[in-house]
């Protein structure tokens, strides 16, 4: 079972730790602030009060045995750097660091961080993407620059069959599923529920359909939006 | 053309403003700190130094005519609240507020924010989702009993074209992407990397291909495994 250490229980660290634990990953949460450790202990497998720049403290908690360590120490940049260096020296396969700016991010990479996250910048870009594409419902990053994207069917697609749209050859995207509102009769009343449909070649796109597609960001940006 | 105002040029605000401008949206960036306004003026349509709690200042910049206003004032919570209230009074259709905590988020919603973003919490969940699923695909958004499954291409599929396999009509599953090992030449050495491919109708399945498919659990259980 995947074992992840989250060091630094600010808003970012707490969010990572709780969400990981909820997904069935084994989580060790660490902070030098005892109160924060206390607040999270019911949500994770192990909550430890310790100074992460102390190699002994890390070893005594078997942090060297985790698959991933997330270093989410914010303002204390030196502590974050030192913790990262120690973790790589202890052989932790993947170390993810939260950085305040691109400058900080560069330094984390140079000292061995496998991945660097800038929350404000990431979620700023995520919001911008949604505001620029109001039909966007959700998207998920897949590996290798591929994204899974949900958006309202553009008017130009409606009434056309999946086959005739030829999304793969025209746009290099794959239509994964369609979410469609359908009328259901339930105890004498008609109500609308959303059904997930695996699109067949002869299926016709309806207005209000939500299309779930996969493709590279470049390919997705070429899809019609209106 | 979509017109968005970004008020507060911290890391989040700058990220939203620049990414929006790059997507072809008309952006007005505002901050009371002249230096920040100066730093962004080449990246947006209009960069204004002003106090956003001053209704006159907002009106003189036609902020009441934007489609969306993003209030990304961080530490100055009262200013963020007041700005939000003014924007809704001026009739801005959509006001998005950046909140520091769930408590702040609640208050923004109560005073009329249409949307509230908590960057640290959002990107923490996004990282957790990726760490919990190293192949980076999320099954939860494909609700309604649909699952995304990755499996080695069965021998019976190899050498066949995607079109001839007719997965959708035969098995009621959708082939999302194929992960395929390819040889790459890098500085005189040949190495193998895994590429993610959007399958085209004429593509032929190769041995060792990993097929990523979507379908109901029942449908997936009927796929050949050998
Ligand atoms: N040497 C250390 N060992 C363990 N924990 C530490 C150490 N130094 C700082 N921390 C912890 O890191 C946590 C996060 O730090 P801080 O709150 O500065 O980060 P932040 O990036 O502002 O957080 P947020 O995720 O809320 O934006 C704090 O709870 C702090 O106690
Ligand atoms: N009344 C105001 N009018 C205009 N701008 C303001 C006002 N009050 C604060 N600001 C600006 O809001 C900006 C963002 O605030 P601050 O840096 O506190 O936010 P933050 O949330 O910490 O930012 P980040 O996005 O980097 O996390 C600052 O540049 C500040 O000058």
- Number of helical runs of chain A? 9
Bound molecules: adenosine-5'-triphosphate
Count of strand segments of chain A: 11
Looking at CATH, the homologous superfamily of the largest domain in chain A is NAD(P)-binding Rossmann-like Domain
Would you tell me which CATH topology of the largest domain in chain A applies? Rossmann fold
Bin the helical content of chain A: 25-40%
CATH architecture of the largest domain in chain A: 3-Layer(aba) Sandwich
Low-confidence stretches of chain A: none
The secondary-structure class of chain A comes to alpha/beta
Question: Strand order across the biggest sheet of chain A?
Answer: 3-2-1-4-5-6
How would you characterize the overall build of this protein?
By secondary structure, chain A is of the alpha/beta class. Helices cover 33% and strands 31% of the residues of chain A. Chain A is built from nine helices and eleven strands. Chain A has a six-stranded parallel sheet, with helices on both faces. The longest helix of chain A has 14 residues, at 119-132. Chain A starts with a strand and ends in a 5-residue tail after the last helix. The relative contact order of chain A is 0.10. The model of chain A has no long low-confidence stretch (mean pLDDT 89). The interface between A and B is large, with 67 and 67 residues. The complex binds adenosine-5'-triphosphate (2 copies). The site of one adenosine-5'-triphosphate has 20 residues of chain B, from helix 1.
């Amino acid at each position: 079972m995947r074992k992840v250490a989250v060091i630094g229980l600010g808003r970012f660290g707490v969010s990572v730790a709780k969400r990981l634990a909820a997904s069935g990953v084994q989580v060790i949460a660490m902070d030098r602030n005892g109160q924060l450790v206390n607040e999270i202990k019911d949500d994770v497998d192990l909550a430890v009060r310790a100074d992460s720049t102390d190699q002994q403290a890390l070893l005594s908690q078997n942090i060297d045995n985790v698959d991933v360590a997330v270093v989410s120490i914010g303002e204390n940049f030196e502590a974050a750097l030192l913790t990262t260096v120690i973790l790589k020296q202890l052989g932790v396969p993947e170390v993810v660091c939260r950085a305040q700016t691109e400058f900080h991010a560069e330094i984390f990479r140079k000292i061995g961080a496998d991945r660097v996250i800038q929350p404000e910048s990431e979620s700023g870009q995520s919001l911008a993407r949604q505001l620029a594409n109001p039909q966007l419902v959700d998207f998920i990053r897949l590996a290798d620059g591929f994204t899974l994207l949900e958006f309202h069917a553009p008017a130009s697609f409606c009434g056309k069959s999946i086959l005739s749209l030829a999304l793969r050859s025209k746009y290099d995207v794959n239509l994964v599923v369609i979410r469609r509102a359908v009328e259901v009769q339930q105890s004498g009343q008609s109500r609308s529920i959303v059904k997930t449909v695996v699109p067949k070649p002869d299926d016709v796109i309806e207005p209000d359909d939500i299309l779930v597609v996969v493709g590279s960001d470049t390919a997705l940006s070429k899809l019609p939006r209106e």
